[in-house]
Amino acid sequence: MKVDVTIATQVEEQVSEILKLRGSFDTKRAELYALTFDTNGGVSVELITSNGDVYELIDSAIENKSTEGLDGVAVLTCGWAAPLPKGETADDDDDDRVPPSQHPERRRVRLVICANREGVASVLRFQDTPNEITTDEGSAKGSLADAILALVS
User: How much helix, strand and coil, in percent to the nearest 5, is found in the chain?
Assistant: First the structure.
């Protein structure tokens, strides 16, 4: 089964329920989940491991081959988001840019990225608008997107 926005949304809802017990936007560790698909189009999640750094989490999973044979994986990470200056894109390399955690318009964010060899999709939720989600089906770019693709390839 291909990971798509429908699957990612189901996974994010399950992870949200798990996180309610420990502060859903303040987790200090990135988490890696195994995805198991059922015959009715549903999905279940099981925590595999966590790490204080999302890239170390992914690198370790690749090195240890801990995701081989799984239906799919999900990576959870929390952090800060801030608007880019007008005219800039996320790909611009600007050393003078204020880090999101220090920006006056920062927002706390939780990101769940789901992937397998057939697809990638993510769900983003902001702490100040917790009932709204933003989804993406495989169009994300950047170092985290590249790391996720390496994890499932």
Answer: 25, 30, 40
Three-state secondary structure call for residue 21: helix
Whole-angstrom Cα distance, residue 105 to residue 107? 7
Token pair, residue 34, equals 């195994």
- pLDDT of the residue at 91: 58
β pairing state of 134-136 and 119-126: antiparallel
Its domain, for residue 15, covers: 5-82+104-152
Whole-Å CA distances, 81 to 43, 66, 90: 28, 30, 11
On whether residue 91 sits in a domain, the answer given is: no
Q: Kindly report whether the global pTM for this prediction surpasses the value 0.85.
A: yes
Helix, strand or coil for residue 79?
A: strand
